[in-house]
DNA sequence: CTGGATCCCACAGGATACTG
DNA sequence: CAGTATCCTGTGGGATCCAG
């Protein structure tokens, strides 16, 4: 049957659209910086190199799994370097690459924007919440 | 007993950290633009106002639920205006506020960064994937 | 046409224990 | 110390039906 349900059409559109989004650099980067831990790790590393457990302590509340996972993906994308020193207790240092520093800059821009406009957003929220409450 | 298990300490740290993050404007904005649909809606609306169903069609693959949910949160944050025209079939238009346009600008900056550095990321990925494969 | 309400499931991500 | 493997839960988000 040539007729598709609305759900089927939407599903098809979604798949195509997802494929399109995946091929889009903007969206890929957006996915990167959207990740909660990515931004935290990059920020933590911005001042200088840190060891694995230092990161774990500095970020406070990250599970080893997510820390490793985040570090791996950032390393893969060439945003940070992983240096292993095979001493008696193994020592691993992580530091941002030039590209990583660059991303940190972008995060800073986001941060600046946030701080600049945060009051407006807060006011808008209060207005919105209030006008709904008093009826 | 005054002694806490490692899990308890981590849990406490996580709660405190979450509270800290919630109070941080940067993180709130990051949460905003991280949302997959938020960026798409803002981009779709950047050129000009659109109706509800136009948005649904332009974004292709969004469920009515997420579309509404996204629009509501953006409206609450004062990023877009919702205009209801009570004609026979109800008509609702959405358009970015000045603040919303501003956010669109930020997304554009992210986009520019992405397009500028995407090649480097892609190369880094290929390098990473290759060196792992040939052993 | 524009949504609200509900059910439901996949999957990201946290806790935990174990290994080089 | 620096992870890896496993399990398990929370929740984001899609499908579906209903209402103004």
TrEMBL record, chains A, B:
Coiled coil: none annotated. GO terms for molecular function: DNA binding. Gene3D superfamilies: Winged helix-like DNA-binding domain superfamily/Winged helix DNA-binding domain (1.10.10.10). Residues 24-122 form the HTH hxlR-type domain. Pfam families: HxlR (PF01638). Keywords: DNA-binding, Transcription, Transcription regulation. This is HxlR family transcriptional regulator. It comes from Streptomyces caeruleatus.
């Amino acid at each position: 049957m040539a007729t598709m349900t609305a759900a089927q059409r939407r599903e098809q559109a979604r798949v195509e659209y997802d494929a399109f989004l995946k091929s889009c650099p903007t969206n890929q980067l957006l996915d990167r910086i959207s990740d909660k831990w990515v931004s935290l790790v990059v920020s933590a590393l911005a001042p200088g190199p840190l060891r694995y457990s230092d990161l774990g302590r500095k970020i406070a509340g990250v599970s080893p799994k997510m820390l490793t996972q985040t570090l791996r993906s950032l390393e893969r994308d060439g945003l940070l370097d992983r240096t292993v020193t095979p001493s008696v207790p193994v020592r691993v240092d992580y530091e941002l690459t030039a590209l990583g520093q660059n991303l940190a800059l972008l995060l800073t821009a986001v941060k600046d924007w946030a701080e600049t406009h945060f009051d407006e957003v807060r006011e808008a929220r209060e207005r919105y919440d209030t006008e709904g409450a008093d009826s």
